[in-house]
Amino acid sequence: MILLVDLCYREGSLGYEEFVLPVARIVEKAGYAVRSVHYRAGPGTVPDDAAAVILCGTPLADTTFLSGLENASWLADVRVPILGVCAGMELVCRVFGGTVGPGEEIGMTEVTVLAPDPLLAGRESFPAFELHTLACTDPGPLRVLAVSDRCIQAVRHPDKPVYGVMFHPEVRNEWVVERFLSLAGEKRINP
Length: 191
What we know:
alpha/beta; 9 strands; globular; nine-stranded mixed β-sheet
């Protein structure tokens, strides 16, 4: 099962339909079971049946999740792969010691891959859809994998399978979510 974490300001917001459900559709289409939870409702820890966690994006001005980092402290101890998408990357950045600051990108941008990694393997650059006003300004210990002309676009923890992408792969780059799932090693429900 892949656990999706809704980072929107309140459970059941319209942001859930825009940012969580599209990721859920990609995960299910790839043949994996999915469960979603709002960040304030838990999980506190990752359920035993979760093979990976995806932290989903939020609407443009929704940054409430960053004001309550105690709701995300469990991420530092997760032993399964994590993918943070947009707001999720901002959260990964903060939890693992980086900083987040102003960094607006809206619309399509070109992403340039800087470092080899299985998540982006075979790509030197690609177009991606952006929708954010904040960005990871200092990745701390996270390794920068890709950038745009305005900000860091992809990071990875140096010792754990923890990733963050600033762009929205659910819009134009479903292959990123699919590749993350294959790296996670979760068994498909429809092999």
